[in-house]
Structures are given as C-alpha cells and as structure tokens.
Amino acid sequence: MSGNSFGKLFTVTTFGESHGPAIGCVIDGCPPGLALSEADIQPELDRRKPGTSRHVTQRQEPDTVQILSGVYQGVTTGTPIALLIKNEDQRSKDYGNIAESFRPGHADYTYWHKYGVRDPRGGGRSSARLTAPVVGAAAIAKKWLKEKYGTEFAGCMSQLGEIEVPFESFEHVPSNPFFAATSDAALIERMEDYMDALRKDGDSIGARIDVVARNVPVGLGQPIYDKLDADIAYAMMGINAVKGVEIGAGFDSVAQRGSEHGDELTPQGFVGNNAGGVLGGISTGQDITVSIAIKPTSSIRTPRRSIDKDGNPVMVETFGRHDPCVGIRATPIAEAMLALVLIDHALMHRAQCGDVSVATPDIGKA
Amino acid sequence: MSGNSFGKLFTVTTFGESHGPAIGCVIDGCPPGLALSEADIQPELDRRKPGTSRHVTQRQEPDTVQILSGVYQGVTTGTPIALLIKNEDQRSKDYGNIAESFRPGHADYTYWHKYGVRDPRGGGRSSARLTAPVVGAAAIAKKWLKEKYGTEFAGCMSQLGEIEVPFESFEHVPSNPFFAATSDAALIERMEDYMDALRKDGDSIGARIDVVARNVPVGLGQPIYDKLDADIAYAMMGINAVKGVEIGAGFDSVAQRGSEHGDELTPQGFVGNNAGGVLGGISTGQDITVSIAIKPTSSIRTPRRSIDKDGNPVMVETFGRHDPCVGIRATPIAEAMLALVLIDHALMHRAQCGDVSVATPDIGKA
Amino acid sequence: MSGNSFGKLFTVTTFGESHGPAIGCVIDGCPPGLALSEADIQPELDRRKPGTSRHVTQRQEPDTVQILSGVYQGVTTGTPIALLIKNEDQRSKDYGNIAESFRPGHADYTYWHKYGVRDPRGGGRSSARLTAPVVGAAAIAKKWLKEKYGTEFAGCMSQLGEIEVPFESFEHVPSNPFFAATSDAALIERMEDYMDALRKDGDSIGARIDVVARNVPVGLGQPIYDKLDADIAYAMMGINAVKGVEIGAGFDSVAQRGSEHGDELTPQGFVGNNAGGVLGGISTGQDITVSIAIKPTSSIRTPRRSIDKDGNPVMVETFGRHDPCVGIRATPIAEAMLALVLIDHALMHRAQCGDVSVATPDIGKA
Amino acid sequence: MSGNSFGKLFTVTTFGESHGPAIGCVIDGCPPGLALSEADIQPELDRRKPGTSRHVTQRQEPDTVQILSGVYQGVTTGTPIALLIKNEDQRSKDYGNIAESFRPGHADYTYWHKYGVRDPRGGGRSSARLTAPVVGAAAIAKKWLKEKYGTEFAGCMSQLGEIEVPFESFEHVPSNPFFAATSDAALIERMEDYMDALRKDGDSIGARIDVVARNVPVGLGQPIYDKLDADIAYAMMGINAVKGVEIGAGFDSVAQRGSEHGDELTPQGFVGNNAGGVLGGISTGQDITVSIAIKPTSSIRTPRRSIDKDGNPVMVETFGRHDPCVGIRATPIAEAMLALVLIDHALMHRAQCGDVSVATPDIGKA
C-alpha cells in the first residue's frame, strides 16, 4: 500500500537505496515448478547495468544477483523468491553538495517534503538504480511467459533528443550502445557525437523508447479499471523519468477517424494494429505495442537556480556519476515492466476464467 | 482484484451494464463528517450526461443519482456510500445486429474471448455509460479535497480531430458543447460543422483532453511504484478509448535538454512546470497537468470488415445511438479520475506520514 | 481497505444500514458462465431472515433479493454482480432512546469514538442485518463450488447457553427453530422453554455454532499469512458477536500429545481429523470443521449502567425488536462466510498453481 | 496475494526457508522519522530464538538481524526496511528421511499437494523458524506504537498440556523457560519435569498462550470485515500450530447472559472486560486480551503410520532437532502478531479518520 510492491498476484516488493549495502526484491506468487537459477536472471541485469559504454554512468556495479529463497533443487517451489544485489561502488561523498539543496527536476524536493527526511546519497530510494531488482524479477516472469505461452519481449530507443531512429529490426539492438533498432552505422555515429557534445556541455537529453510483447494470449486484462493498458500505463509512468505513455496509435488517434483507426478483422486476423494489442482493456492476441517519453536527466553539471532547505536561493551544479540520457538504459527496464504486467494479468485471468489457451488464435497475428 | 474497484483507500466499486436495470457504485473509505446530499453529486453527473447537444449520443438519460447508504442526517458516517442510477432509456434492439459479430476497434471481440459470454446490449459493461458512477463518486472526492485543501479541478478539449483549440480560459468551457476553453465563436462553429460532416459520413473522430488540478498539497504519491503520476496514468488510460497519457511536458520531454526541462526553483517558487506538478512520483504543490488522447468511437455506420463468432467474414455497420466523438464528454470523466487519484493519495499519505498541511507552500505556485 | 469488502478474488463489497432504504452488495470476480438467477439466492436468504419463529427478532423483512447486474440471459458474465435488498420494516423510533447513550457490550460506543458520528437506527452499519448481503453472495459461491468440486456446507447450533446439543445429523437442522442437529423433541422443547424464560427476563444468551465444508479440494490456502485457517478465523471472528474460533480440535489441542493429535495417514486416507481439514494452512481434502462462540445479544431490556455522550451516568434499557440469542440465526451466516473463504482460496490457488483437480483424492475422506 | 505479506499499510513481506541461506523481510509503510537501529530489534529476536533452554530445539541460531535499507543516519526514511537474518546452523541431512513421506499432523502433505514440489529441509517454508522475521518487524511496530500512544504488549503461557498456570504477574515471564507469569518455583519445576518426561517419551504437547495490549487508542478497527478482532484472529490463527483463538471472554461467552457479558460503563470507565477491548470490531481503549490454543508439535520420535508420495504405507519417526512444545516460544510471536495488527489499524484509522488522539480516554482503563 505504501507503494513498494508491484503486481497483485506476481508481486514484486523491492527494497534498497542507491548507496546502501544492498538492493533487492521479494517475488511472491511465482508459480511453482519453473526451472530457475541465477543464470536465468543475470543476462537481463547485464543488459541494464551501468558502465557498459561511455554514454552511461561510469559507476562500476557488477549487479551480481543471488537467489536467497523460493528455489529448491533448481525449481521454484511456489514460495517467495528473494533476490539480493550488493552495492559495490558507493561513493557517497560525490553527492554531499546536494544534501542541503534541491536539484531542479529531481525528486530531492518532494521526498524531503513528503517524509521530512531523505537519504541524499545517489538519490537514495529515487535512484534509477532501483530498477535493477525489477529487471531481475521480470527475468523470471519472462521465462515463465515464454514457456507457458511463447510470449516474447523486445524494445528499442526510437528517438534520442531530436534524432529519430527509424525502426529496422530488433536484432540490431544489442549491437550498439543505444538500444537502437538500426544497422545504420552513420546514424549510430551521429548519436555518439550527439552524446559526446552533451557531456561536454554538462547537459542531458530525453529519449523515446518503444517496447513490444509478442505471442500474448487473448483475454488478459481486468476491466473496467485494471485494464491491461491501464496497468501498462501505470507500470511505464512509474519508471524513473517517464512523462508520457502511448499504446498502439497513441496520440495519433486524436486526428484519426473511426473508419481509419478501428482495426478490421478478417478470418486471417486483424488488419492493422492501431489498438496496440488491447481492446476494451483486454489483450487481442496481437502484439502489444507501447511507447514512452523519457525526460532528460535532472542531475547535470550546468549551474541552475534552486533553493536550500531553508528556502534561500542557491545555484546547484551536480557532479558525481550520472547517465547523461537515462533513456539509454531504459529499454530493458520498459520490457521488464511490460513482462511484470503481463504475468500478473495472466495469473489474474486464470483465477477468474481458468487457464488461458497456450496458443494465441491464428487470427490476431496480423 | 477482478478490476472493478478503483482506489485503495477511497475505493469505488462500480457495477452495472449499459442496458441493465441500473448502474451504480459503492464508495468505501470516505472520511466521516462530510456534509453530503444528492445535490452535491448531481451537477457533475449533469456535465457528463448524454443528450445535451446534437454532437453526442441522443440516448435520453436523466442520470438521477440516489444515495442508498453511508449518509445520516446529511453527513457522511464513514461507512460505505452506495450510489444508484437507474437506466431509463434502454433500447436493446438497436444492438441486436452486433451480438454475433465484432465491431472493429471495439471490446466486443476481447470480452467474448475472455469471458466466453458477453452482454451485447449497448456494449454491456464496456460502455462509456459506466463512467457515470465514477463521476458521481468523484463529486464526493472533489468536495472533500476542496474543503480540506482547497483543491480544484478543471479540464477542456484542446484538440478535436485535426482542429486544435488554443487555450484561453477554463471559464469558457461550459459555454459551448465541446468543453473548449475558448470564446472564439468562429472556432466553435467550425467544430460544429466538422461534427455535422462526420455524422453525415457515418464516421467518428478522436480528441485530446487536458485536465488540471490546482492547490494540490505537496507530498502526495507513494513511490516507487504507486507514484502519483503512475496512478494518474493508470486512471486515465483506463477511461474508455484513451490511447495516450502525458504528464507535464509529456512527449515534448524527448527533445528537451536537462537545462531546459528541469524546473528551476526560487524562493518565490518553481519557475515553469515541465514536471506537471510531479517529481519522483510525488506532488510538488504546483498544478498537476495531464493530457490524454482519445481514439475515435468504434461504433460507426460506415461498413467495415469483420468476422462473426464462427470466424466467418462479415460486414459490420453499427446503428443505434452513439457519440461520434467520445472525447466530447470525456472532460468531466478525466477530471473525475484525477480527483479519485488525488483523494486516494491524500489518504495514503496521511496513513504513513500523518496529516498533510492544509495549505500548499508559497513556493510551487508559479 | 476501509473494511467493507470481503475476499481478494471473489470480492464482496457490502453497503447499507439497518434502517436505510436498502442494503446490498457488489460481487466482483465471480467466474463467468455460471447459471444464476434470484431463485438460486433467495433460499439462503430465507434461512437467515428474521421473523421465522418467536425466538428471533419480530422485524418483518421478506429480504427479497434483486440482481442488478452481471447476469445476462441467466448466466454470469464475469462482470460485477450487484444484489439489492430493500429494507421494508424500519421503525427507527424504537431506537430513539439509545441515540445519546451507549449500550453495554454494543458497538455504539466505539462507532461514535471512531467516526465522531453514527447512525443509531437499529445499530446502523453494525447491525447483524448486514449479514444478509453476504449470505446472498455466498449462495453464488456455494453454487459455483458445488458445481466445480462438489463442495457442500452444513452447520448447526451445538450449544445454547448452558444447554449442549449432541450432534445427531445435519438433516434435522431445518426441522427446529434453533438449527439444532437433533431429532430429540424433548431437547428442543427444553430449548424453547429456556428462550421463553430469557425473553421474560429481558435478557439474552450466547451460543456455539459448528460448521463444516465437505468435498473440499486439497491444496487451498496461501501460507504463510493467508493460510486457509487464518482466513477462516478472520471470516468467523468478523461475524457480529463472535468471540472465539476453533478449527478441528481447537482448544482441546492444548492438552493433547503429538502422538494423539497428529492425524495418521493410511492408503485409505486420514485416520481422524484433529486438523479440521487444514495442515500448514492448506486444505487436506478432509472435512473442514469450525466452531465459533457467539456472545449474548447486547440489546436487552434489563436496565444496565452506562454513560451518555457527555460522560454522564445513565441507565440503559433497550426496547425495540432484537434477537434474544443472535446465535440462533448464525448458522447460515457462518456457512456463508466459510463458503466465501473457500471460493476465494479456490480462485487464488488456480491463479498461482493452475486449476485444482475437480475430485478430492480418495485419501482424506476419513 | 500469494500470502506472504502481512498487513495492508504496515506491510511485512517475508521470505526464506528453514535451511536456506537466509530469512528476512521487507517492511513497507513504516512511518518516517522513527529512530531505529538493530539494537531496537535484536532483543525481541533473542526472546524467540532457539536453544535458550533444554525444553526447546537445540538448533543454534544467533538470529542476528541486519538492516539493509530504509534507515538513514539512525532514522527511518519512510522507504522499505529490509531485515536480513542468516541461517547459521543448517543440518539438512537430519531431515532426509521425511523427504519422501508425510509426517502426521504436518504441512508436508499439503505443501506437496498444493505446489507439486516442496523443500523438505527443516519444514522449508512451513517451519516456525519463519516467525523470526515477523518478530523483527514487530519490534519496529512496537517501538512506534509505544512512542506514539504508549501502547505496550505482554504475554505468557497459561497452560502447558494439562498443567494450568495461574496468572500472577507478567514480570515473572522472563524468569523461567516457559514464559509463565508465575513466581511459583514448584510449578516451574513441575513443568520442567513434565517436559523432560515428554522428551524421553519422544512425544510433544500443546499449550495455551495469552497476550495483551495496553494503552490502545480507542477507534482502531475497520468494520464490517476488517474488524480489529477479525484481523487479530487472522493473525493468531496464522501462527504455526494455532488451532483456536479467543478475544475477551471467548468461548465462555456461550454460556453467559447479556446482563452478565456486556461490560457496563461508568464515568470512570468500563466495569469489566468481557469484550477483550473490542466492540463492534473497534477498539474500546481497554486492554486487548487474546488467548490462543497451540497444538503439539507434529515432528516427534514416536513412530506413526503414514504414506509416502506413491501412497504406500510407511512408518514415520522424526529425528532431528524439534521443539517438543512449540507453544513455549510462541509468546513473543503472538505479541508480535498483535503489534503488527495494531500498527496496521492505527495507520488505517488515520487514513480515513485523521490522527487518533495520543492518549486513550480515562474511561476504558478499568
């Protein structure tokens, strides 16, 4: 209820702060009988971890995950799975200068007003570092969804600041430091130059991320409030720095006519996917397509006007190690949140309606 | 858990279908001691009700609300408040032709796959008619928030299809059939002609709606998952036909630099509101600003390809009474959802942190 | 969260007060496809309703139930089922004398302290009349459990004040006004005389009720907190006037040795049922056996010392219509609560573990 | 939802198995600003830990607690508090003989049927060892309740098998190995002999535990389902081996008359406490009094009939280290559960009704 659990039936409760001894989570509700070891989880954490290129924070964290419970002889037992990730590279002194004042655009101000106390080391609880445990938990969700329904996830950065990245194929995503779905080397180089210039300026930039889930069973979603798209919006807007969420045609729907937007059906399936795989809050069996807007990092070296705790004017410059574009590492996080929403709805669906069919219908594969 | 309750502490559970005997809701968690009668609720329902202009559905529903419980001698008692609204103008035969096939872009297909059975009369449970009870419940939330914190809500349509509506003042919203915040009579006439043409074509159109909450206390929001903006996104995406949600700068954040996006602070308050009143998932005390994209109505007279329950190809034309732009009546609904999110977070905040200060700080009024 | 919903997946949210216009509930999460009409519900309400003998309250309420939603063409649709029961025989003046003071042993005192306001008419929300909607909801649960697993419920009064009622057979329960599982006419007459004497004295008495569920699937229960027996205890202790709950051997376990208490297993099943059908918080497939202690009615004609709202001493005598033994009508209520717990756990179980087998194993039928 | 979280607003999610690497919990919803360190928690864990006398299990566990998050500079921050307790003395081989068969009276049978897999080492998740994290969490709850309302907890064993322990004073509880509230050395010696004889017999015994909370604010409880006593019953019945729960007069209420049971009020407070501090599901401000029945340990050396996983008859003798009376260490656990219920209801109350008064009224101190 205090907001640190995600999901109702596959419930992930996270804990930890950026510079505490450890971060982690407890996953309650994982179905029993799933083969599971750390090796299933680590690759997803590695996709998200810091320090993998010069365009992200240089904090060195191996993000090695340890399973503390819920698995016996390599199989989930249906009891809570606890994941532990130790913080290895805390340098709290880097953040000393921001303990008494509030970074513009940062949670400093609101945490202090809400709780009357805050852990300023690396953003404390509000740090994007806290997405690591959910990425770990989602690795388990992805594995179960894959085995049960063949569901798969993919994502990419489709815009970096002013630079749009035309979609080519998800297969290119691992081949560049931006999760860009392109093989256009010149475009990648342009993005690298763009980021280098930003770092030099002591500034940061926003990004747009697209994620998709394929082979989703028909029927997931609990209208009329816990609609699948409502829960996806909740999950995505809850990721650090996200300011906008679209499903399917998103804001383009505003200027569409009904005769254009509504995806027709034929015996071979849907013709088009303006719906983004969700109608009436329930999955159609088509790909679920989601886009999110990520704001620029608020911790920048450029001096900015702010106030201190006593309300006095100050100038704030943030040193320390920060991602100049938090959007870069957001793709695996957005995929993770989508996976957590889907497994939760899969379990909710079978609670009320019984087990969903393993295969999606032939229609809906447009 | 099955999705028909909204809110965790101010919990609204709705029931009913478009053409059943009645719709309504139970509100659990309303603070005791609030003066309340039907007269506090009816005006909000009247803003949303059908039949108020030729541009919305012609179904005639007075939407008269009755309080069945939870109020004694004109004051809330802290026990559940049940609201009942009778359906007066059911014409189920209008919908007979869609019982066996699926309207493109409509929940017909997914409800049938999910539940194996569906009530086709007027869309059954998936009808936008079901937003009436939440508008009623939100009238109570609005009253409490106004009395407690001075919080107020406003909203308008900012785009109708291709027609953008420049914001002038919320005071003009009640003076035209579109909830447009403009006094530009020529623009309103253009919108009327646009809608008339659409109806003639048997087609429909999307819209963009903006809503705002003012005088919001600092500190509402339960990071790191039940962030205020995450719950707003959930609430908004759950409204019928919504495909996109933005908070503050929204998708414009993608191309913004950190030095531009992050709202600076001075002793006089925030300078700008790219944040939309939320930082780190917690309210800043500034206005909360939200935009949503509403897709065009899926029930249109234009013939469209679809399939029947047996998978055979059919052409679907939807007669009966429908809003040609569901966005028109969406403004009071979006305000209602925002109010429900805020009261829920206000109660959650005082659970954990004690009562919030009645006045927002001077800063944050930029 | 404010306590007026019961169950997590088969969620019953009730509303109403003893003397308001109506009482009722919304059931969210009922599986779709269940044949259902008012005729399935009314018989359970009739078992509980007042006025059926001289030993219970003489308030005349037909307790006629109306289904407002969630059923289409005689089948549940998976959407919320609203039940409405009108209050027909309110006589609020009967209770005028208790509006300003607190009946000893009654919720008057605590409701007033908690909420600062209370509806004194007939006990308002705290009246046992509010068990009617849950009995209605449980009729649906019972029907589904019966069809799905063959689960059946029975209950009886096993003690009325000092009078113990030896168990003979549940078939005798409907044949006497006390829900006694006996065919001993002399015993029944003794109970009638006992009740007549109590009424003459203007006093009331407690009772002990036993309920049982048969043909319960193995595996229901969500340890380690939402154990099946924990939720049963919650459900039972939440019934008006209940002060004690036992599962299986209950308090007799205190003086038992492990070699006596632990039910042995043979290939033919369990030998004994000290467990009451629950081990480790999970159903064994044996009968679930529960006993509850019901305190004597607090509203009695005998004058008693109390205070008024200003803290002044007063004498309180309660006139009006009251059950001299609330335990008499408690049997169908206790069965109802047990049924609601079981359906909720059946749905939770299939969320995490998939569908339970329809048949209980041969073992466990001891 | 899968049952491993306790509490709605002060939510404790536990993880771990008896013989895994570690056990622990995440506490979400702790109010910020509470001074807290491991030194506040360890003493409660020490009261519960094994190996403190020859009458409990000889497993050697220091149960040293480590706070991983949620505390900064010695003060709670309002973010999740993770507690970690390492398992030091696992000897899994001791339990090898029970991996393939089911101990009578034990969760072996039901876990295996529910999940299709189970961790047999020391009872896995069903072990009473898993009460350690909640005792740790409750130490935090107790501290907050003490500081906020002056609430205090106490408990004792009032019956060991056939031996009743007359209540003298809680001050004697720490002075004997049984949590007995007596200074009667002869009685303690009798209990020691009784336990020694049991161990020699390879058998076990039940117990009765009484717990009390003092200085409880008036008004806690969320009727009509989340009544304070309903949640207490849930909490207590959920403790390992509990088969019965009583509040106040409990089962004695059955034979009481209304004129005897209902606690009269005078301007000086309640006269008697048959209610056990709860009326209508809401705290009265009086002491909350609870009794529980604990069954005898199911793991005993005495050979017993059972079956193996294939349904074949076997004889089961359980060696390894077990408490011959799990009731002995149950007192701090029962206190802990009561504290967790009270803090949760205190937070729920202030969500809906605002902050409760720090002092309980003078009345209600009878």
TrEMBL record, chains A, B, C, D:
GO terms for molecular function: chorismate synthase activity; FMN binding. Its cofactor is FMNH2. GO terms for cellular component: cytosol. Residues 42-63 are annotated as: Disordered. InterPro entries: Chorismate_synth, Chorismate_synth_AroC_sf, Chorismate_synthase_CS. NADP(+) binds at residues 48, 54. Homotetramer. This is Chorismate synthase. It comes from Pseudoduganella guangdongensis.
